[in-house]
Amino acid sequence: MSQQDQSVPAQAWITVFAGMSINLCLGILYAWSIWKSALVNVDLAGQSFPADSMNAGWTYLNNAQAATPFSLCVIIFALLMIPGGRIQDKISPKFGATLGGLTLAAGCIVAGLMKSYTGIIIGFGVLGGIGMGIGYAAPTPAALKWFGPHKRGLIAGIVVGGYGGAALYIGGLGQYLINTYGITGSFVGLGTFFAVVVVIAGQLLKSPPEGYVAPTVGGAPQATAGATITNWEPADVVKTWQFYALVLMFILTTQSGLLIIGNAKGLMVSAAKNMPFFAANAWILVSFGGLVNASGRVGTGFYSDKIGRLNAYCLNCSISALCLFSLPFIISTENVLFLFIAVGIAYWQYGGGLALMPSFAADFFGPKNLGMNYGLIFIGWGLGVFVTRLAGTIEDMTGDLNYAFYLSGALLVVGVILAQMTRRPIHVDEMKGDEVTA
Description:
The chain is mostly helical. It has 19 helices and no strands. It is 75% helix and 0% strand. The longest helix has 51 residues, at 152-202.
């Protein structure tokens, strides 16, 4: 039966890797800490950069201010996943990806040219969030529709892996552009680059033709044995308690990753006070996080196909919670090796959640309306940013992020408990089918 995998057409894999390429551009969000580090100076907040510097015209920010564009971008990103999903389902993934990518590019250019906090709010926060939401809604559902339940975790992991992997190069490239061309040059340069890549890759995205049946295999593993055979309409999805459970599970898996992502460079600076190389090159932790984030999406997707989505979710959250609880101690002892390990696990868990949740959505509610259904569930990702925003205030008040780390770890434990209680809903059509069979 496994031979049936060979019947997946070439366009299926073209869509997968085109989607990954698009997400490599949309993932600029994960390099935000590079810009945050360049803009934040609590002692000089509100004052202008020196007139003779390449960043003349910009104004220094405090931590809470710097957290706002990031938080706003995340929330708008999540909200726009809903219309973005509808565009993917009803128009085409090609249109959605192209529109989203160009909007994000425009936002980056606006943020750079306005040289102000307002410009970052409008450009990165609003336009960036709109572009990410519409663009990100296109590739994953389009790719998943080509494949059967036994490959959903892996395929979702590959496509969204591009988004996580973006920090691999955007971290270093963004820092280089800031050092060479200033904050404005980095925003404008990356925005232009993104526009070119997304327009080209977007043309390669396609959904399966009407009537296409994805190949399956016999003896489905635990992850897919209970996948629904019914395609739920969005109006019915939101009537189930499982929908709200998935949203909450998404919030809980997301919040810890966004907390780390938004503060990665600062964590390295704090832990490497006596290691000048790492302190001066803190972007290395950002890029390392991007690698692990991307790997966690592919890796978690792969083993969730083997051990089950539920088991994969609980495994990732449990181990990451231990790392969050240990971060204050690691930073206080300035142990850079342990910092890489703890932050790496947090990135892996976060990335894994973004591979698991679209797979949960497809298993629970079917592939046909996956763009819209996953878009609705994705609001949980946006709501997960509340810990990051709260952490900015905590850091300004206490001087560190210790209480934010403890809170984040506790929320991951809540996620494990909730996941253990959640099983897929049974559609009324399935119940009718059981009655007929009986």
